[in-house]
Amino acid sequence: MRHTTRHDRFGGHGGPRRSTRPAGTEMRALAWMARHPLPWLLPLLTVVAGLRFGWVPVAGALGGLLGVGLVWWRAHPATFDRYAAPWLRSSRRRWTAYAGRRWSATMADCELVRENRATGHLAVPRVLAVRSVSRSLDTVRVRMVRGQDMRIWTEQSEALAHALGAERVAVVKHRPGALTVVVERDMPFPVPLPAPEIPASPEAVNLRALDIGDDEYGHPMTISVIDGSHPLGVGATGSGKGGIMYGTLRQCGPLIRDGQVRVWMIDLKGGTETELARPLFYRHATTITDALSILVEARDRMKDDQQRMRGEGLRRQSVSVDTPLDLIMIDEMAMLTAYGDRSQVREALRLLAEIMTQGRSSLWTVAGFIQEPTKDILEIRELFTTRICLGVTAASHVDMVLGEGARERGALADEIPLDEEHAGIGFRIDKRSRQPSRLRIGHTTDDDIAELVRTCAPARHLVGLPAPAEGVA
Length: 473
What we know:
Elements: H1 6-9, H2 25-35, H3 38-53, H4 55-75, H5 77-96, H6 100-109, E1 114-115, E2 122-123, E3 126-131, E4 137-143, H7 150-155, H8 157-164, E5 168-175, E6 178-184, E7 210-215, E8 220-223, E9 231-234, H9 241-251, H10 253-257, E10 261-267, E11 283-285, H11 288-312, E12 325-331, H12 334-337, H13 342-358, E13 364-370, E14 386-390, H14 395-402, E15 425-429, E16 436-441, H15 446-456
């Protein structure tokens, strides 16, 4: 008679044998209903309401809601696109692209499923959430199946993009066992945008909303250069940072011409990028020594403005010829804040921090442009309140510019090709929703700069130069 041993009773592994029988279909259905209540709860509530109040009132209420939605969509597209459209779009794509057999087939085709050897059941990565804040970007939160890691998904990202019919797919770790898959469905900017128009008059200039490009919905993409808004443009060589700088100058053109905006330009790349626009500038520096002299002069004038305002009992002043907005522009800030002599770098950082933290009421603004936004290159990065991230060379740069988690929420600035066709495309963070907003900056040519100089160069005395002698042109 064969004696049953502990090894036999517990499956030869020192413990109870795991059942190979899968959970019942009804149990899996209940689990699905618990995770997704709306698809069955809304019809159920509609039936209950119809039985309780009658079908005619319920149909009228539903029709009224649909009518309100249609009127909202047609009458005020901006608010509809901001509040209602993302929710509707996320729901539609959740059930048409990232659920059911279509999602399972996509995962199987991309070899992202795992087979349970005991039961033969295919384990499919489960979609936890879908957000489609824009028409061209989906962020899909996915729970990996046991035994997978992020490397597997990264290797299959190109295949996954083809399977989903998308331009590209990026994979970001969310938490242990869960990923965020960013699906870029199409490119919303098929052609470059022209340079921003020069306003017809000083009254047409809005320093709180300078229109320098478009967002992906075709709405104006604006920046502010007043009230303590310090813009920062980040992007690799060829990404289109010059469009931000010259777009801002074109939008300020009439105020520059009339002396209500004074531009202090620091260009430490030899001045080649800004020489064509030299007549526009109140001050112009092409060496770090001259740049420090400019910053010292700016700091001292800011202190003088503050002392005058205290004497006059003013908390802030308005832009005028007597009290102009002083706009300090720094092209390639790394030459000033990291790569120079260490004592000069420390002095430059100290002066910039002083101006940026104290210059709001006395109308001092700093606009910076840089390729690499790391903390050791730009220690005062957090003082820039308006940040635009164009095409960059490293995924880590995106979160450094736009804030933690920006790339996970869809700001794929490191995936933007660095060529002329894609120059000016980038992202910024929407102040209301905190979601990345895709944008394209207008492309400014040499002819556009020449037009700006020809129409908006200030008189010589407004840029600190003496008037020409009598009889001299």
